[in-house]
Amino acid sequence: VPNKNTSSVMFMDFDMYVLVTDRPKLAENYTEDTWLKLRDAVGAIQNSTSIKYNLEELYQAVENLCSYKVSPTLYKQLRQVCEDHVQFTESLDNLSFLKRMNRCWQDHCRQTVSVVVDVLTLFTRLRDTGLELFRTHIVSDSAVQKRTVEGILEQIELERNGETVDRSLLRSLLGMLSDLQVYKDSFEERFLSETNRLYAAEGQRLMQERDVPEYLHHVSRRLEEENDRIVSYLDQSTQKPLISCVEKQLLGEHMTAILQKGLSTLLDENRVTELALLYQLFSKVKGGLPTLLQFWRDYIKSFGGEIVCTPEKDKDMVQDLLDFKDKMDNVAQSCFARNETFINAMKEAFEAFINKRPNKPAELIAKYVDSKLRAGNKEATEEELERILDKIMIIFRFIHGKDVFEAFYKKDLAKRLLVGKSASVDAEKSMLSKLKHECGAAFTSKLEGMFKDMELSKDIMIQFKQYMQNQSEPSNIELTVNILTMGYWPSYTPMEVHLPPEMVKLQEVFKLFYLGKHSGRKLQWQPTLGHAVLKAEFKEGKKEVQVSLFQTLVLLMFNEGEEFSIEEIRTATGIEEGELKRTLQSLACGKARVLNKNPRGKDVEDGDRFNFNNDFKHKLFRIKINQIQMKETVEEQVSTTERVFQDRQYQIDAAVVRIMKMRKTLSHNLLVSELYNQLKFPVKPGDLKKRIESLIDRDYMERDKETPNQYHYVA
């Protein structure tokens, strides 16, 4: 310890006189020469207590004592002097107390090193003795230990509350406790208990006061602060229990409350930063990610279910689904670390809610595809259109009743192909390829057949034009016919209309030409999808008018007269009443009014009269007059859906017969199980039972006479 009379470091002030004067206490076998050397060594040590010593001389003196096997006595008396020296009874405020304790500890460490420097035979014992004496007489003192630990805890609490503290002081004192091997028992247990109490209260209070984003940032900041304390002054062994304590009290105890209070808001507002932080924090807590996963799945089901099951939102359903899927994909990718479990849960949730409302999503997806593939859609480039189709296919995969999609898609595809409304043949074939890859060749066989019919029709028309050139009476009407295979295309209600004689004659010529090449076939004309280009003369000059076949029949009447009533037009053309009113409305009430209606008005009523508008003007030479499209009625939608259900019954019947023919005998449960494996659409057990009963009634199969639940195939 520092000599009290000087400011320089002096050797320990201990009494060695016993060693010099009390010779009988030494080993009797020492020679006189040995005794003189020992006396000189002791004298050197004694001299060092009153003057500044030379460390080299002192070292030599101590080494001499050790070499003559007097180290046990030297150690014993040195220990006693150290024990007398280490007294600590000062009364100070907490911070001053800690500083005094730290200074005492630093002095003690330095002087112990001075005593034992490089004297290897004494080093370990003296160092351990120094630590033991400090632990016994200072730190183990209950009052001293209590004040030390409470002072350290007070400084840490001040720092946690935002005040600046002396970290080097804390680092030194906690290092002291660690060196003295009392860190865990005297400090860490109390420290963790206080930390647990602090953050338990803080978590409860802040969950009430703050919103979830603010609370998450607070938790993150607290964790950073505690990790910084470990680096700065706490023992490394404290890291795991300390961080676990903070995570448990600020997160683990409030996981459900955090998610209930804030997850929906974070997802609704697309708060990606806070969502990423939420995932990061919950991944640290036991059970955190499974809890987050469940709430994430429930949110998707709830939000998506509202989109699908709200009829008022049907108009925007598909676009809303695509936007929602993009949003959830982004969250999973950028916030949830591309966690496969979360991605799979999202897919399961989408599949669950999108099939809550049978058939309608499939129908609307088909119509959405139609809107994107139809000519006039200028919203996207080819690359953007391709990306949109890819996104649609992702939604399409979740649908169970894909046959409903097929029915509506085929109906719209037919219109696009026959009326020339398709925006791009490449885009159409790309969509077809995607459907084939997703559902198999059987799903797209009819759709592919429609494209083949259109290509074959082009070849047939080339041959027909050559045929017409060889006719003795060539027609002044250029006829184009699309030959459709009935099984590939949607069924259309036949409608008989009164065509002009020139058209009827041309139809007969084509019929003769076609059946001459394909005997045994029957042609059925379908006027509802026909269209024509007419040459018209107005005061302004000649124009070409592109119109539907029904519009053509109406306009041609005005070659024969100036004005007609709606009844006269209906009689002359044979067009059904509702279709005729829509046709006249497009010609007399639309943007391009080639007819005048009397009286004026937006709607066509019984008793209205029409005349040719000779004053019609338009900047274009060829004018396209769109037919007023009748919105698909509920009856038509029901009709399409009913046709799907009818097809499903045929498929069920075929599957039952196929299975029974192969198995010959099968129980009801096994048959139903096989049917579920083979059928591609959702079906209820009751519907399967009805189809089985129907097949039994029609003698395709029979029940076992002794076991009614067993079926036998009837050849």
Automatic annotation (TrEMBL):
Pfam families: Cullin, Cullin_AB, Cullin_Nedd8. Pathway: Protein modification; protein ubiquitination. SMART domains: CULLIN (SM00182), Cullin_Nedd8 (SM00884). GO terms for cellular component: Cul4A-RING E3 ubiquitin ligase complex; Cul4B-RING E3 ubiquitin ligase complex; cytoplasm; nucleus. The keyword Membrane does not apply. InterPro entries: Cullin, Cullin-like_AB, Cullin_CS, Cullin_homology, Cullin_homology_sf, Cullin_N, Cullin_neddylation_domain, Cullin_repeat-like_dom_sf. It is found in: Cytoplasm; Nucleus. GO terms for molecular function: ubiquitin protein ligase binding. GO terms for biological process: DNA repair; protein ubiquitination; ribosome biogenesis; ubiquitin-dependent protein catabolic process. It comes from the Eukaryota. Keywords: Cell cycle, Cytoplasm, DNA damage, DNA repair, Isopeptide bond, Nucleus, Phosphoprotein, Ubl conjugation, Ubl conjugation pathway. Residues 360-588 form the Cullin family profile domain. The keyword Translocase does not apply. Belongs to the cullin family. This is Cullin-4B. The gene is cul4a.
